[in-house]
Amino acid sequence: MQCDILIVGAGHGGTAAAIALRQNGFVGSIMMIGNELELPYERPALSKEYLSGTKSLERILIRPAQFWKESGMIMRLGERVISVDPEGHQVTTDQGLSIGYGSMIWATGGSPRRLSCVGHDLPGVHSVRTRADVDRMITELPEVRQVVVIGGGYIGLEAASVLTKLNCRVVLLEALPRVLARVAGEELSRFFEAEHRAHGVDVRLGVQVDCIVGDGQRATGVRLADGHVVPADMVIVGIGIVPAVQPLIDAGAEGGNGVHVDEQCRSSLPDIYAIGDCAAHANGFADGAVIRLESVQNANDQGVIAARVILGHDVAYAATPWFWSNQYDLKLQTVGLSGGHDATVTRGDPASRSFSITYLKAGRVIALDCVNAVRDYVQGRKLVEARAVVDLSLLGNPAQPLKEMVSA
């Protein structure tokens, strides 16, 4: 079997690339391989609207089924690429199929990082990465009274907020001294810790998991390093992802924690591009450090870049990073990357539940976290993009529009 362009991965990045190819006039053959049986869908909704039951699968599809029928693309779902022959421009799937390609876009994302302790694989221990993951949780929920969530990142906090609304008691365990420690400053962490506690979540910080205990049939609790057992009818593990890149690494691609790509999403292998969660790139908003950005925005933007480069356009990836998280009635919007900041300025009162935090490094604005503060998010983007130097007294005044501070 042969195709002009092979897209491995049917998530946000792969879908964005496929759509961009057609929108930019490509009429050749496109094949998309996805390891799930479903048509491409919006993953962020899994830990929010889909888990809560407010949106069905049909409502979170990136494009309706009819779109794919009319696109002329070949969709191979429920299949996985297990090896790559870069010289022969060919891949092999877990169904024994050999597929030749002209160009390939690797958009496989990642798999949930698993606990390594005893009991990690017991029934009742879940991750939140695929529709099937969440469907298993939904099936069990009628019998669940207490949930233990391991991990205080976005996935863990979002799952905790939804499960609390579903009348579950939630205990959230975080190994670090605060939630969101890897992505936000302390003030935002403390704000969300207080919010979750106010909604009844038992937030425990600086705790280490020893193992998952069970009754011989399923998980019944989480034993901590101090010997204490936290009872659980369900355990949710949200401790990050492992990029799904082994076939490319085995084929000789540069990388490790992700496949290394240049500003045009090219890997070190001929005619192979990598995008999204599994692609490691030098990012200007991280002072040129090689990072992976786990966001829908990054996957979409890199998908478009890879498609246009394949079609001969002289474009490069330089998108401004942005993220969002919905918890209870709080909408967190982030622009930029706050890592390495040396100062922060808060606009508004966190007690009002509408405020923003500006992160600075060497006097320049590098990121904003905005809670129920859409105007600051929209206007603050220009400050981040300009690496603006601003008057801190004005920056901390909510009455002073951020758009008036872009001067550097």
From TrEMBL:
Metal-binding as a keyword of this entry, yes or no, is: no
**Reductase C-terminal domain sequence ranges:** 322-405
What EC designation does it have?
1.18.1.2
Enzyme class per UniProt: oxidoreductase
Q: Name one GO cellular component term.
A: cytoplasm
Q: Which UniProt keywords apply?
A: FAD, Flavoprotein, Oxidoreductase
The residue ranges of the FAD/NAD(P)-binding domain are 4-303
Statement: the UniProt record of this protein carries the keyword Repressor:
no
Q: Which cofactor does it need?
A: FAD
Pfam family of this protein, just one? Pyr_redox_2
Q: Which domain of life is it from?
A: Bacteria
Output the Gene Ontology terms for molecular function. ferredoxin-NADP+ reductase activity; oxidoreductase activity, acting on NAD(P)H
Name by which UniProt lists this protein: Ferredoxin--NAD(P)(+) reductase fdr
List the lineage, top down: Bacteria, Pseudomonadati, Pseudomonadota, Gammaproteobacteria, Pseudomonadales
